[in-house]
Design goal:
The chain is built from 14 helices and 20 strands. Strands 7, 8, 9, 10, 11, 14, 15, 16 and 18 form a nine-stranded mixed β-sheet that branches. α4 runs parallel beside α5 and α9 packs across α14. It binds ligand BES and zinc ion (2 copies). Ligand BES binds next to α11.
């Protein structure tokens, strides 16, 4: 989709439709809506007055400009109540608008950017929200289709019509595009089928992304992982003919004197469960088990595009989890990079195994903080549902920042407790700890397992995104399928990054 900022006139601008906004039960029209209303014989005011359009959030109505304007349609979109309005609500409203037009095969829209003093967002935030929302809602994955290509509906052009300050809009529009591209990348990587997204293929693709973004890239292959002693990562990888690969991304800003924030992403390219094999039903969904990895790659691409003044390292263990004659087994004791011996109770708890070594490895960077993202447990979905990530960790300030970032990005994250008393559930009879206890507090026991591998004294947060990596039905900003969960959240966290205080839990 082309996005252009135009300083122009509503009468001469040409597209299939205007996108105009209105707050629920607002006596006043927004200035942008009023300007078009005046040009079309007050039809907008009339439908509102007649009670045919209330302006509820995402309520919409198509009107015709009756020949008085070059753009002949008006898509009137509800923003909901002013008191409940947020950038997220505007992102959703724009997403819904462009999707509606795309479905009608009207692929060019002009959006007069609300600018008046009474609009609750600043002009630059408004432009950013419109572009990001529009792009996210239009996402589709068509790479693997070979038939009926004519039926794929594209959206071609969004014109942001600015009355004044149009110069100020280029920055926010570019920022929104960068964010959307990072989320698109994460969605693409998660959507790719597991035969076309093996550890080798994904590592190569991430290498290309890194090169384009100017981010340092290193691959820890099997030989290096063996030399380092990454026993837990290698144990999971050994069941597959596809070699496991640990990707290291290192974004260094030009002025780089602070220690980095390390992002760790679970990159299981297919989780069959291994010897503790999963039921056949819905097993195909386990191609999504690298959504944490995809979020880290997407976020680092955005961080680099925005040239944030903070070093950010990404650690991504990529492997399949398959059963075979070489696979690790329940009962095996695995010597991890940290030195801790892990008794494998269930090979399907493979995410925590590969993350254990990645978390230990993160210690090399003496980071200011570590954040990991993982589609880790079905138990988290049971606890919080499909749309909410479980949030746990060791540093209240970091956890608070993540929750706040989620509120801004519209990605829901919610805390679960992580008292050390849960660790007694993970004690092993033969080794230092076991990888699984029973079903109780499954999301928390997974996190308490991870905590044992977090380098001493480093603030750490863990997001269990098992539920929210995929969207079942489709929402305005998230078409059905991979969500790209975590990219926006991580970028928000890193955007205004300040060193964490001294208070550690
Ligand atoms: N990848 C799964 C978790 C998962 C489940 C992600 C549902 C997305 C949707 C993970 O590796 C797993 O299999 N976890 C087990 C842990 C159990 C063996 C303790 C689970 O949740 O059942
Ligand atoms: Zn598993
Ligand atoms: Zn898994």
């Amino acid at each position: 989709m082309d996005i252009n900022i135009l300083k122009g006139d509503i009468t001469t601008v040409e597209a299939e439709a205007f996108v105009l906004f209105h707050f629920e039960q607002d006596d006043r029209l927004l200035e942008t809506t009023a300007a078009v209303n005046d040009a079309v014989g007050s039809i907008i005011a009339q439908v509102i007055e007649a009670g045919d359009f209330r302006g509820e959030h995402l309520e919409h109505l198509l009107l015709y400009s009756q020949g008085s304007l070059k753009t002949k349609r008006i898509l009137l979109m509800g923003l909901g109540k002013r008191e409940e309005f947020s950038a997220h609500a505007l992102r959703e409203a724009t997403a819904q608008s462009l999707r509606t037009l795309r479905d009608r095969r009207q692929p060019r829209a002009v959006l007069p950017i609300p600018f008046d003093g009474e609009f609750p967002l600043e002009l630059s935030d408004t432009a950013e929200a419109c572009v990001l929302g529009g792009m996210l809602g239009l996402y589709q994955f068509t790479e693997l289709r070979t038939r009926d290509l004519d039926n794929i509906k594209d959206f071609d052009s969004l014109i942001i019509l600015a009355q004044k300050n149009s110069k100020k809009l280029a920055g926010p529009v570019d920022r929104a595009k960068a964010m959307a591209n990072g989320i698109y990348l994460a969605r693409d990587l998660v959507t790719l089928p597991p035969n076309l997204a093996t550890p080798t293929i994904l590592a190569k693709r991430v290498g290309e992304v890194a090169e384009q973004a100017g981010v340092n890239f290193h691959l820890i292959d099997k030989g290096e992982a063996e030399k380092l002693g990454m026993g837990a990562f290698l144990a999971v990888a050994q069941g597959s003919d596809e070699p496991g690969l640990m990707v290291v991304l290192d974004y260094k800003p030009s002025k780089d004197d602070e220690p980095p924030v390390v992002l760790v992403g679970k990159g299981i390219t297919f989780d069959s469960g291994g010897i503790s094999i999963k039921p056949a039903k819905d097993m195909d969904r386990m191609k999504h088990d690298m959504a944490g990895a995809a979020a880290v790659v997407g976020a680092i691409q955005v961080v680099a595009a925005l040239e944030l003044p903070l070093r950010v390292v990404g650690l991504i263990p990529f492997t399949e989890n398959l059963p075979s004659g070489k696979a690790y087994k329940p009962g095996d004791v695995i010597h991890s990079l940290s030195g801790l011996n892990i008794e494998v109770i269930n090979t399907d708890a493979e995410g925590r195994m590969i993350l254990a070594d990645a978390l230990t490895y993160a210690g090399r960077y003496e980071p200011q903080a570590i954040v990991d993202l993982a589609t880790l447990t079905g138990a988290c979905v049971v606890a919080l549902g499909d749309d909410v990530a479980g949030l746990m960790g060791t540093d209240d300030e970091l956890l608070g920042r993540l929750q706040a970032a989620g509120e801004e990005s519209g990605e829901k994250v919610w805390p679960l407790p992580l008292w050390d008393s849960y660790f007694k559930l993970m004690k092993s009879d033969v080794a230092d700890l076991k990888n699984v206890d029973g079903r109780k507090a499954g999301a928390i026991t997974a996190a308490i397992f991870l905590k044992q591998f977090v380098p001493d004294g480093v603030p750490w947060a863990h997001l269990d995104i098992a539920g929210c990596a995929r969207e079942e039905k489709g929402k305005p900003l998230v078409p059905k399928g991979a969500t790209g969960m975590g990219v926006h959240l991580l970028v928000r966290l890193l955007q205004e990054w300040q060193p964490l205080g001294e208070d550690k839990r």
